[in-house]
């Protein structure tokens, strides 16, 4: 069992504003995929905030909506 299971559970279930590292834990996106989505502004509309030109944060509410909007319906 991971040493920081309590911290991982907190990030995965309750924290609203997520760093790229938190996104890896909460949603399973790789950091390189998140970076790619930020760079390709026309091909991905994944919402994020950039604070002070340096810090990247993701709003869990908007990410959940984004995932819902991008789900593929069954055949």
Structure description:
With 75 residues, the chain is an alpha+beta fold. It contains four helices and three strands. A three-stranded antiparallel sheet has the order 1-3-2. A hairpin with a 3-residue loop joins strand 2 and strand 3. The protein is globular, with a radius of gyration of 13 Å. It starts with a helix and ends in a 6-residue tail after the last helix.
Any descriptors?
75 residues; alpha+beta; three-stranded antiparallel β-sheet; 13% strand
Topology:
Layout: H1 5-13, E1 17-18, H2 20-27, H3 31-39, E2 49-51, E3 55-59, H4 60-69
Antiparallel strand pairs: 1-3, 2-3
Topology, number of strands: 3
Number of domains: 1
Shape: globular
Subunit arrangement of the protein: single chain
Helix count, per DSSP?
A: 4
Cα-atom radius of gyration: 13 Å
Mean pLDDT over the full residue set: 87
| Coarse structural class | alpha+beta
Give the ordered list of helices and strands.
HEHHEEH
The percentage helix is: 40-55%
Largest sheet: 3 strands, antiparallel
pLDDT under 50 segments (min length 5)? none
Widest sheet: strand ordering: 1-3-2
State the end-to-end distance. 38 Å
Report the β-strand fraction as a percent range.
Answer: 5-15%
In short:
With 75 residues, the chain is α+β, with helices and mostly antiparallel strands.
């Amino acid at each position: 069992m991971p040493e920081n299971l309590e911290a991982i559970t907190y990030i995965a279930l309750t924290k609203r504003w997520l760093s790229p590292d938190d996104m890896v834990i909460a949603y399973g996106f790789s950091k390189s995929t998140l970076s790619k989505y930020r760079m390709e502004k026309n091909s991905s509309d994944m919402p994020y905030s950039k604070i002070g030109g340096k810090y990247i944060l993701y709003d869990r509410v908007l990410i959940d909506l984004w995932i819902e909007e991008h789900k593929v319906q069954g055949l």
